[in-house]
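Chapter review: from sequence to fold.
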Amino acid sequence: MAPKNLHKGRILSMYVQPESRGLGIGKALLQEVISQANRLSELEQLHLMVVTTNNAARSLYRSFGFEVYGTIVKGLKVE
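The token string follows.
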């Protein structure tokens, strides 16, 4: 990674199986990732991407303080 970007971390993906949703698993996973990230002294930002129609995930991320800073049109192609 370029030295100019060493202060940024990325959550590449997160998934909870449908039958396990609503049990707090996503919240616990995100809490642990943030806890681990906070141990890295050089890390100042955490970035993640979410599909705009995934309202449950967007709500979870907002509850942790994540903010929208951009939208990638047609950024995900399924099939």
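Two observations follow directly from the output. The radius of gyration is 14 Å. The first strand starts at residue 8 and ends at 11.
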